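Here is the promised in-class demo. Please do not try to memorize the tokens; focus on the logic of going from shape to residues.
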């Protein structure tokens, strides 16, 4: 068995165990209490934190989506994939399908706030519940407004910022004539380092 197959098998077992925990919650105290739900989401959060730090595990999650025939596309986040695997399951039960994005949003916001599984229930309670957390960072701006906001930020702040690190401006990374910015695509390596693998001077993605 290859190393990648080992990861797929290992994460499959973890997801099956969490899905079984989810089934017990659905059949037990779902209507009466959120305590088990928050415990389940806490364990799911710990899994999400582990997977997002390991590209091999992230690929294993995507492989399981294919294996269980669960729909996703290129814009489906890792959090949504993991929540779908656990809450829809390989039997495609889908009893809580409408809540998938809410749960995935909780995982993302909790991670941004350095919350772990053991403290998730308190985090949810302190922030007035799952639906309130789902609304975090929803500015109510149109796409055009957000693009203008980003452009203004780049021109007023990023133009003179100290930056994260200095690099050699090779031909592949040069901005278009008369422009200040280009985009670099960085690959995270297995040893934790990063490598620039692609650069573009196209104005549409830069301005977006």
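The designed amino acids, position by position:
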């Amino acid at each position: 068995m290859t190393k990648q197959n080992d990861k797929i098998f290992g994460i499959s077992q973890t997801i099956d165990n969490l899905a079984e925990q989810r089934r017990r919650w659905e059949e037990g105290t779902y209507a009466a209490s959120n305590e088990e739900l928050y415990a389940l989401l806490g364990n799911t959060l710990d899994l999400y934190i582990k997977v997002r730090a390991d590209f091999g595990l992230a690929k294993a999650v995507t492989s399981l989506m294919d294996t269980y025939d669960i729909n996703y596309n290129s814009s489906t986040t890792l959090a949504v994939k993991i929540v779908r695997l656990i809450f829809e399951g390989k039997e495609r039960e889908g009893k809580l399908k409408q809540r998938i994005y809410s749960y995935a949003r909780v995982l993302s916001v909790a991670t941004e706030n350095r919350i772990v599984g053991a403290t998730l229930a308190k985090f949810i309670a302190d922030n007035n519940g799952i639906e309130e957390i789902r609304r975090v960072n929803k500015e109510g701006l149109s796409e055009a407004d957000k693009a203008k906001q980003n452009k203004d930020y780049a021109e007023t702040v990023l133009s003179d910022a100290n930056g994260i690190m200095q690099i050699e401006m090779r031909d592949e990374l040069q901005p278009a004539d008369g422009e200040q910015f280009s985009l670099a695509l960085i690959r995270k390596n297995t040893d934790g380092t990063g490598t620039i693998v692609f650069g573009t001077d196209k104005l549409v993605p830069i301005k977006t």
